[in-house]
Design brief:
By secondary structure, this protein is α/β, with parallel strands linked by helices. The chain has 2 domains: 142 residues, HUPs (Rossmann fold); 187 residues, Argininosuccinate synthetase, chain A, domain 2, CATH 3.90.1260. Helix content is 41%, strand content 19%. The protein contains 14 helices and 14 strands. The strands form 3 sheets. It has a 5-stranded parallel sheet with strand order 3-2-1-4-5, with helices on both faces. α4 packs across α8, α5 packs across α6 and α8 crosses α9. The protein is elongated and about 80 Å long. The relative contact order is 0.12.
């Protein structure tokens, strides 16, 4: 089937196997002028080195590489941290939250270059295709979307390697590499290979960032994180820009085996998948932020915010960063963070994050309020009336059951089992 010609397309380019072969494939199948866009979101110098040259050698007409680390931290990671968003109790959303930022800039490049299409290298089975394409729709629905993995005959990484060889595309991926990885400022993920069997323990050699907890230093380290309105602003009392805070905590956390999780998760597209994640700095920040909120938020707000966090995490995982609901929830979250300022000290030791202190001028914790002997603050005699009213529904139900001639639905324990023969 002949494809409709596209004059110019902007490809989200990583330099990996898939996006490398997409460049000549787009030229061959769409007759397109291919512009590559790569976002530096903290994946490391090794992944960015020689990227422009590699893209040009693959057939790209132009290459953009933008350093987005601070925007990633300030505009995406920290708002998500304020929300306390965690997907399925454990996943800190490192890949999920990065895709809307990349796609946002990809759309901007397409508009600047006058391109009529955007393309990505996501497979048709995963979550990332949704995250990219929902962002395209939200920011510029007129752009044509090309998703080669849903169109081409390539069905495996071996096929992709063969295509690359045929078209003289320089790739670093080898047949011996069994894992699919994604790294950025926030995390490093691992999928595929032996991880496809959830009963199989990950190989020690698979981990590329964090030290195994049992091999971490025998002496703990204590780190202090300062927050202003729910946003991290300093580490060990040294003010730092957003990305640098995460980088520093990554270094500390990784050295002490912090942030490893092994998770079977429910993908948006309906299947389960297993991933292993390393999120050292993010794990530290989530612990610190949660502890500070315990001081600064009242019970009702804190409990309701926990419900909001679940929905917020779903929206991020599902690729709906630019959805009206996510933005509305963010406004609520921002309001809750008005008093979340102070510091938290944490002890890092062999994979554990242990809170050892927290303080805030906005703290709602008052020793004189909590002390039982201070009747001028809290009159214990008031508790009887409160309990009577608080439990009135339960009392009335029990009285109704008794008045009907029966016993309450909860029978008394059988104490005969304690009698000796």
């Amino acid at each position: 089937m002949t494809k409709q010609k596209v004059n110019k397309v902007v490809l989200a380019y990583s330099g990996g196997l898939d996006t490398s072969v997409i460049v000549p494939w787009l030229r061959e199948n769409y007759g397109a002028d291919v512009i590559c866009f790569c976002a530096d979101i903290g994946q490391g110098a090794s992944e960015l080195e020689g990227l422009k040259e590699k893209a040009m050698a693959s057939g790209a007409s132009n290459v953009y590489v933008e350093d987005l680390r601070h925007e990633f931290a300030k505009e995406f990671l920290f708002p998500m941290l304020q929300a306390g968003a965690v997907y399925e109790r454990r996943y800190l959303l490192g890949t999920s939250v990065a895709r809307p930022l990349i796609a946002k800039w990809q759309v901007a490049v397409a508009e600047a270059e006058g391109a009529e299409a955007v393309a990505h290298g996501c497979t048709g089975k995963g979550n990332d295709q949704v995250r990219f394409e929902l962002t395209y729709k939200a920011l510029n629905p007129t752009l044509k979307v090309i998703a080669p993995w849903r169109e081409w005959e390539i069905r495996s990484r071996e096929d992709a390697l063969a295509y690359a060889e045929k078209h003289s595309v320089p790739v670093t991926h080898s047949r011996k590499s069994i894992y699919s990885r994604d790294r950025n400022l926030w995390h490093l993920s691992h999928e595929g290979g032996i991880l496809e069997d959830p009963a199989t323990e990950p190989e020690a050699s698979m981990f590329q960032w964090t030290v195994a907890p049992q091999d971490a230093p025998d002496e703990p380290v204590v780190v202090r994180v300062d927050f202003k309105k729910g946003v991290p602003v300093a580490v060990d009392e040294v003010p730092l820009p957003p990305a640098r805070i995460i980088e520093l905590l990554n270094e500390l956390g990784a050295a002490h085996g912090i942030g490893r999780i092994d998770l079977v998760e429910n993908r948006l597209v309906g299947m389960k998948s297993r991933g292993v994640y390393e999120t050292p700095g993010g794990t530290i920040l989530y612990h610190a932020h949660r502890e500070l909120e315990s001081l600064c938020l009242d019970r009702d707000t804190l409990h309701y915010k926990e419900q909001v966090a679940l929905r917020y995490a779903e929206l991020v995982y599902f690729g709906k960063w630019y959805h009206t609901l996510r933005e509305a929830l963010q406004a609520f979250i921002t309001q809750t963070q008005a008093t979340v300022s102070g510091w938290v000290k944490l002890k890092l030791y062999k994979g554990s994050v242990i809170v050892v202190g927290r303080d805030s001028r906005e703290s709602l914790y008052r020793e004189d309020f909590a002390t039982f002997g201070k009747d001028d603050v809290y009159d214990q005699g008031d508790a009887a009336g409160f309990i009577n009213l608080f439990g009135l529904q339960m009392k009335v139900k029990a009285m109704m059951e008794a008045s009907d001639g029966g016993r309450t639905r909860y029978a008394a324990p059988d104490y005969s089992i304690f009698k000796r023969d």
